[in-house]
């Protein structure tokens, strides 16, 4: 019998314009901070520099790309593998991609990954992609299963569909954790706090106290971890937990709120507490 593992993975996106837009940290400084904050690794669109610096610090890497061009899938996958990634998060296609085209692209993506070998790509649930709603996501997954007899690896970011469906904290679990099979078979989880109006809510107030919004969200994060463990408690699989807080640039965060990196670090500790409480 195995023991499941829990890896804390920082998204370097959270360090955009940190500590300031006029003097942002270089990659080396970012990765020193990632290591110092207790993360096991990081995720981004990886290049050779990321691989070299990750190896120096013994950091786990998760690859990433966004594409709708099937002719580029193999090169994109190989570029992430070449710098050490086994897991690759993929934002696939666009909001207006038809279900049939989304399935065809997904089949090509996974076939290319199998041909290259040593890769485990997962299609992220995300706005402005072919999985922007739960209906599109489950249609894609079910179509993939019909074609291959396999469950499609999914990167779960529930914040996107919570906003699409205008949810409230009392129905997060009921409305979002509806496919235990897909949650338990997944490896990558983007744990960004949300509510039904905002795909990102702050973790802390200016005084470092937890916000009401994140306190409303934490039971859902715990329920997600608990559901995953119900299917993996005797396995040696790994849950990759990304406390993904977006920066001001791009509009996820607001200038007057705590910065995304400090909130991501605090969120990492909250997720660790949840995991330890549940497995304990």
Task: Outline the fold blueprint.
Blueprint: E1 5-11, H1 27-36, E2 41-43, H2 48-57, E3 60-67, H3 73-81, E4 87-92, H4 99-116, E5 120-124, H5 134-148, E6 154-155, H6 158-164, H7 172-176, H8 180-185, E7 188-190, H9 212-232, E8 238-242, H10 260-279
Parallel strand pairs: 1-2, 1-8, 2-3, 3-4, 4-5, 5-6, 7-8
Q: Can you tell me about this structure?
A:
The protein is α/β, with parallel strands linked by helices. It has a single domain (5-279), classed as TIM Barrel, CATH 3.20.20. The chain contains 10 helices and 8 strands. The protein has helices spanning 27-36, 48-57, 73-81, 99-116, 134-148, 158-164, 172-176, 180-185, 212-232, 260-279, and strands spanning 5-11, 41-43, 60-67, 87-92, 120-124, 154-155, 188-190, 238-242. The chain has an 8-stranded parallel sheet. Helix 2 (48-57) links the parallel strand 2 (41-43) and strand 3. Helix 1 runs parallel beside helix 2 (48-57), helix 3 packs across helix 4 and helix 9 (212-232) crosses helix 10 (260-279). The longest helix has 21 residues, at 212-232. The protein is globular.
């Amino acid at each position: 019998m195995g023991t499941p593992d829990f890896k804390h993975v920082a998204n370097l996106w959270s360090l955009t314009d940190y500590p300031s837009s006029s003097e942002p940290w270089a990659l080396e400084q970012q990765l020193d901070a990632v290591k110092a904050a207790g993360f096991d690794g990081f995720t981004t669109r990886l290049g050779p520099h990321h691989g070299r610096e990750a190896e120096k610090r013994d950091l786990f890497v998760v690859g990433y790309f966004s594409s709708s061009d099937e002719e580029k899938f193999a090169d994109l996958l190989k570029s992430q593998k070449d710098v050490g990634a086994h897991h690759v998060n993929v934002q696939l296609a666009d909001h207006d991609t038809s279900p049939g085209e989304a399935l065809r692209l997904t089949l090509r993506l996974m076939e290319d990954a199998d041909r290259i070998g040593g890769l485990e790509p997962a299609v992220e649930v995300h706005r402005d992609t072919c999985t922007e709603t739960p209906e599109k996501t489950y249609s894609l997954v079910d179509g993939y299963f019909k074609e291959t007899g396999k469950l499609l690896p999914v990167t779960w970011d529930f914040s996107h569909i919570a906003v699409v469906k205008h949810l409230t904290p009392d129905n997060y679990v009921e409305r979002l954790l509806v496919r235990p099979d897909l949650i338990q078979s997944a490896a990558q989880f983007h744990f960004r706090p949300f509510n039904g109006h905002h795909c990102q809510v702050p973790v802390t107030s200016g005084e470092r106290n937890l916000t009401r919004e994140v306190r409303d969200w934490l039971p859902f994060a715990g329920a997600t971890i608990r559901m995953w463990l119900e299917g993996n408690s005797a396995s040696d699989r790994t849950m990759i937990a990304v406390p993904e807080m977006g920066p001001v640039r791009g509009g996820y965060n607001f200038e007057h709120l705590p910065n995304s990196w400090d909130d991501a670090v605090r969120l990492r500790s909250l997720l660790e507490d949840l995991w330890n409480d549940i497995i304990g």
